[in-house]
What we know:
This protein has helices at 47-59, 110-119, 135-140, 178-184, 216-221, 223-228, 261-285, 290-300, 310-314, 334-347, 390-402, 417-420, 427-437, 446-452, and strands spanning 2-4, 26-28, 35-37, 40-42, 64-67, 82-85, 93-96, 101-105, 122-123, 157-163, 169-173, 193-200, 202-203, 206-215, 232-237, 243-252, 304-309, 322-330, 356-361, 376-384, 406-407. With 454 residues, the chain is of the alpha+beta class. The protein folds into 2 domains: 2-203 and 433-452, Uridine Diphospho-n-acetylenolpyruvylglucosamine Reductase, domain 3 (2-Layer Sandwich), CATH 3.30.465; 206-407, FAD-linked oxidases, C-terminal domain (Vanillyl-alcohol Oxidase, Chain A, domain 3, 3-Layer(aba) Sandwich). A hairpin with a 5-residue loop joins strand 15 (232-237) and strand 16.
Amino acid sequence: xxxxxxxxxxxxxxxxxxxxxxxxxxxxxxxxxxxxxxxxxxxxxxxxxxxxxxxxxxxxxxxxxxxxxxxxxxxxxxxxxxxxxxxxxxxxxxxxxxxxxxxxxxxxxxxxxxxxxxxxxxxxxxxxxxxxxxxxxxxxxxxxxxxxxxxxxxxxxxxxxxxxxxxxxxxxxxxxxxxxxxxxxxxxxxxxxxxxxxxxxxxxxxxxxxxxxxxxxxxxxxxxxxxxxxxxxxxxxxxxxxxxxxxxxxxxxxxxxxxxxxxxxxxxxxxxxxxxxxxxxxxxxxxxxxxxxxxxxxxxxxxxxxxxxxxxxxxxxxxxxxxxxxxxxxxxxxxxxxxxxxxxxxxxxxxxxxxxxxxxxxxxxxxxxxxxxxxxxxxxxxxxxxxxxxxxxxxxxxxxxxxxxxxxxxxxxxxxxxxxxxxxxxxxxxxxxxxxxxxxxxxxxxxxxxxxxx
Length: 454
Ligand SMILES: Cc1cc2nc3c(=O)[nH]c(=O)nc-3n(C[C@H](O)[C@H](O)[C@H](O)COP(=O)(O)OP(=O)(O)OC[C@H]3O[C@@H](n4cnc5c(N)ncnc54)[C@H](O)[C@@H]3O)c2cc1C
């Protein structure tokens, strides 16, 4: 097993990465809709120090919460008590190139992981839209990308180590403590503080991205073939139109059609961020302009094809701030759900400025994964930051709850334990593991109390 030792004194296993800025007690998430002030910010530099901090907090009746990079929209990472940041818990990186297994500190950001893997000729099998999350944060909420052959990122975890609510250090995998493994891979930060994660990677690969506008009806008519016929298929529906933008990413042998630097900047930075931000601001100021802007956007998007390193194709910068709700649904109900969503959007007293993102994942065996034992279609709805969203999100949630919808743990939702229990067949087993691992609820916050019970 090759090993990348941490350079002495450096916090990052990548060595070249500059140290993270030290944050104060005030915390806010990326979207700016969650804020908190901690009584103390802890940055342990060893697992023992972390375990001590948990024991001290538990014995003093305090609460302690690990945060990642604050990219959840829910209050899942909020704490008004002790906040733990894992930036100093660097730990060694272990790479097993033959088995394609990589063990990394849990607080590593996905973008740092991607650089590290590329250096070893490896890659994550699939990724979400961005790479700014920490690994622990991403897996704790069931973060996912798209692709009928791929579960959420937690399905790539083969082992993890965590510090429980009694300060015990536990290691789990499919062979070693399978029950804890089934619970902790999507643990909502409620079972312990994850210190180390082993990921099953794949050989580095190139993706060919194809993006094109299409009528929604044509895409729905062709849906099974589009899902099965592409490694990664998704589409965006533009409210007030019958148009979508289709995106497919497929593995190809050669990176022979890279996006020219200017086109990449123009599409992904200028159009997707700068122009889109301007359109959102205009729509927020003059809501009557939203439907024509949506129609123009749907028509203005052109087709493009390019190749690139997998993580660079999967992930793009997101600078326009928004609020979001996302639901995992049984795949068969997608057309009905989209039709109902049309009616919700048309009936709202305000306008919806963001396209609706539709993605697909494979079933998995993780107890609180949205994809637990079912083929999923994900529907993600958004609003520009500062624009009204609650009636929209609540109306959508009422619909999808009926169809067995499971809310993304990191994205806004209004469900509680009583309403979530029927959606997750192993919900009570998860709660039982939590009772054993965190009997004094040192990791609890308002969010875990709502979704898991006190
Ligand atoms: C612009 C944007 C794009 C996004 N794109 C996608 C996407 O494509 N697909 C998708 O599924 N989601 C997406 N998300 C949601 C995001 O992936 C999740 O909310 C993810 O959890 C954020 O990770 P984080 O590191 O910011 O964690 P945080 O939000 O800081 O924390 C999330 C949870 O993880 C816990 N946690 C953090 N570190 C640890 C640890 N060491 N041990 C135990 N628990 C820990 C926290 O306590 C909290 O419960 C997106 C979010 C944004 C803002």
